């Protein structure tokens, strides 16, 4: 009598059952995935739609400032500030800073978003410069020269503006724009270099013993570091003003926390929106320096 199949050496289960189990293992997961995927997608669809509606302004900003800008940079071989300057050359009046600023605003609204200060924030800046009548202003972050023109046209007679731009190619565009507006090097001096390297040299190389007003517009991550550098090199007089843009978007929380908690500043926050994206809330911080304490 032959050996039963379940006791044969090397075999622990019925071959027919093994084949059936393997078939089930292969078929069942596919069936489950096929039936569950549409259900999962439908469950997340309301959330996706809600996010798209709620944050549609941020998506528009992302597409305009990253995707489309990168594509245009590649196709034209020019940066956005260079394309904007070409537009200014053909549409603005030389020697008229107000008309040049209006032309840049029009370019940003109707052609490409420029990521500049814009007219609403610009009015805050100009009003402050006119009220303070500073003898010397330091701007960290020239970019295309928009805020530089705002400051320069509001300076009192004999006022001086030092503006610092890290990127040489961007600085070259800003230099052309500043001179096109009619401001010479005695009134507006553009320094190419990082703020971290320039600030310690302001007193010795640029004869800047103090600055009555500082505009921080170069990048929120650098604000706290550069404010402390200005303090360390005694460039801020008592009563001096520091104006910082973009403190709410993308935001400068460490800078604001320091200014409010160190006891050396009186703080005021102007709530605004981004140019051409008013639904995206931003703000300008005005700090008044009380002295080293």
- Which CATH first-tier class of the domain at 116-289 would you pick? Alpha Beta
Overall pLDDT confidence: 88
Q: What's the CATH H-level homologous superfamily of the domain at 116-289?
A: Vaccinia Virus protein VP39
Give Rg in angstroms.
Answer: 30 Å
Biggest sheet overview = 7 strands, mixed
CATH topology of the domain at 116-289: Rossmann fold
Fold and architecture overview:
- This protein is an alpha/beta fold.
- It has a domain at 116-289: Rossmann fold (3-Layer(aba) Sandwich), CATH 3.40.50.
- It has helices at 15-54, 56-76, 80-91, 97-110, 118-132, 146-154, 168-180, 195-198, 202-205, 220-232, 247-251, 253-261, and strands at residues 136-140, 160-165, 188-192, 213-216, 241-244, 265-274, 277-289.
- A hairpin with a 2-residue loop joins strand 6 (265-274) and strand 7 (277-289).
- Helix 5 runs parallel beside helix 6.
- The radius of gyration is 30 Å and the shape is globular.
- Mean pLDDT is 88; it is low at 1-34.
Short recap of the structure:
With about 290 residues, the protein is an alpha/beta fold. The protein is built from twelve helices and seven strands. It has a domain at about 115-290: 3-Layer(aba) Sandwich (Rossmann fold), CATH 3.40.50.
Which structural traits does this protein have?
293 residues; alpha/beta; Rossmann fold; seven-stranded mixed beta sheet; 12 helices; 7 strands; 54% helix; 16% strand; globular; hearing; transmembrane helix; membrane; endoplasmic reticulum; neurotransmitter degradation
